Amino acid sequence: MPGQRKKKSLAGDSEEPVSPKITAKTAPENGDRPKLVTLADVARRARFGESTVSRALRNDGSVARASREKILKAADDLNYVSNRIAGTLASAKSKFIGIIIPSVANTVVPEVLAGAMLVLEDAGFQPVIGVSNYDANREEKLIKSLLSWRPAGMMVAGLEHTEHARAMLMRSGVRVVELLDVDGEGIDIVVGTSHFMAGRKSAEHLLARNYRRIGYVGHDIKSDERARKRLEGFQSVLRENGLNFLDQYFFPDCVTSVEAGKIGLACLLKRQRSLDAIYFSTDQLAVGGYFYCLERNISVPTNLALFGYNGTEITRSMPQPLSTIRTPRIAIGNIGANLLLSDGPSTVVDMGFELIVGATS
């Protein structure tokens, strides 16, 4: 990052991470946040009594079809979420926090959860976790399901959601924390890093080391918005220098693994033998690429440089520590949970990142 100092580490040279930048948003504060949509609001919009509305929403057959359709449209227009605890625990204050993660296979997610759970469990809250599998529609269903249990707060990954999911979160009446990304418009509290800038810094590093014939190996950027932003940041630097990727290899889904990295690099090198550097969307893929180079006696970085993203522990234990971007994942979860339980204003916290020079570039 601009103005950073170089320091030594066991994983090779690194650039000192940027201190967290906290920005107060113009979003409404506590008393002015959108209020929770109630059954009474739906009843007023649909012009039916609350008992009729309640029966219609429960799919009670005693409500005429036309009336039910009108009530359901009113509920949908207001982004109403039914209350599953009404009548039984309505007087009890919820002690669970809804958390939606993109994948259980993603190696960085457990660290974010660990940081959050340290805070939530110490404060007496129970995390309830849903997995979206990078599917926006699935995430929407999970949000609706978790909100129906009236959680004390919600934590979700990323800033991109369906229009309906975003509306439900905004009208939920609880604090919402969006984690891992700061490149976009948040709902309430945002804690993460800039993926666009991470991509830019990765490209600047490789170009500064005179790599010009660069390839890309990554997974489906149509589903993984954060990978897409990193790729766009990288490409923006290439364009500024009159360059472009020599070739790119995309996997059809969001699964990243060591084996996938080996396959992706093998396919890329089969098409383009003159590549001198590869930018991988994740460390897992980059480690797979490194193993492929070992198997084929490709000298790293003499014949081919490798660069990843995440700064996972395994990359520091490689025979040649991986060149990558390290993100403060535990701290992101920890700070996000603390802000969730606070009564402060809507906030954006850019946690920054650290460029690890490593030994593969």
In short:
With about 350 residues, the protein is an alpha/beta fold. It has 12 helices and 15 strands.
Report on this model:
- With 361 residues, the chain is an alpha/beta fold.
- 38% of the residues lie in helices and 17% in strands.
- It has a seven-stranded mixed beta sheet, with helices on both faces.
- Helix 4 runs parallel beside helix 12.
- The longest helix has 16 residues.
Q: How many helices in DSSP terms?
A: 12
The radius of gyration over CA amounts to: 23 Å
Number of strands: 15
Q: What is the 3D shape?
A: elongated
Give me the side-by-side strand order of the main sheet: 3-14-8-7-6-4-5
> Percent range for helical residues?
25-40%
As a percent range, the share of strand residues is 15-25%
Output mean pLDDT: 86
Helix-strand sequence = EEEHHHEHEHEHEEHEHEHEHEHEHEE
Low-confidence stretches: 1-13, 26-31, 85-92
Distance between the termini: 18 Å
Major sheet attributes: 7 strands, mixed
